[in-house]
Amino acid sequence: MNLILLGAPGAGKGTVSKLLVEKKGMVQISTGDILRGAIKEGSDLGKKAEGFMTRGELVPDQLILDIIEEKLSKEKFPNGFILDGFPRTIPQAEGLKKIMSRLSIKINAAVDLIVDENEIVKRLSSRRTCSNSDCQAIYNVFSKPTKKEGICDHCGSPVVQRSDETEDAIKVRLNTYKEKTAPLVDYYKNEGLLKSIDANKGSDKVCESIISTIE
Ligand code: AP5
């Protein structure tokens, strides 16, 4: 099963992807994680992406399409993959369609995680992320605290707030989502792939709803 996860920043795409990886053996492909890893490494990709990300803006479409094509063509996904944070614009969705056809792969569903805006702001301002770019585990001060304060349960690295979690960057990210990414809901509805999920509940329940909807 190959899935696209849609949803506003903070809707829980990363959290639910990690649960699907555990439960279903799927592979998570998070463009946000790939870009943050590239910034940490200081690679060319990271240098190109850093300014856009810190301001809360989208990285140019072609840069993202190249990352996705390379990943999908080089790796094998026996239990399927989850595209987390991609596509995010109509040109990216059109680009993905061409990549899928070149590689003879099919997307089975585009799952939209629907969360109230006040809950999103609360989740984003209380999120903590593992600073180790190979781990990037996601925590929340209220709903999923680390066992030891400030330390990742998985790898022992410090957990931090992301650089795009300032009040200004969150505003830009939410506006960018409404303007550029929300239109993908209608796009995938027209493609016959859209599945809408109420994601205001706990992440285990969200994951169960996704599994029962797609299976
Ligand atoms: P990216 O990393 O993709 O960020 P995002 O889409 O803004 O999404 P987030 O990671 O902020 O949120 P999420 O939905 O994964 O929520 P999470 O699970 O963490 O992108 C970052 C930047 O990279 C972009 O701004 C852009 O610059 C660039 N970029 C990336 N992809 C791009 C693309 N395709 N094109 C162009 N640019 C791109 O959860 C949030 C918090 O809530 C956590 O604390 C979590 O513990 C908590 N939580 C989650 N679910 C629940 C729940 N059900 N109940 C209670 N708490 C919950």
Structure explained in plain terms:
The protein has 215 residues and is an alpha/beta fold. The chain is 50% helix and 15% strand. The protein has helices at 13-24, 31-41, 44-55, 61-74, 90-103, 117-125, 167-181, 183-190, 203-214; strands at residues 3-7, 27-30, 81-84, 109-114, 127-130, 138-140, 159-160, 194-198. Strands 2-3-1-4-8 form a five-stranded parallel sheet, sandwiched between helices. A three-stranded antiparallel sheet has the order 6-5-7. The structure holds BIS(adenosine)-5'-pentaphosphate (AP5).
Defining key terms:
single chain; 215 residues; alpha/beta; 5-stranded parallel β-sheet; 3-stranded antiparallel β-sheet; 9 helices; 8 strands; 50% helix; globular; binds BIS(adenosine)-5'-pentaphosphate
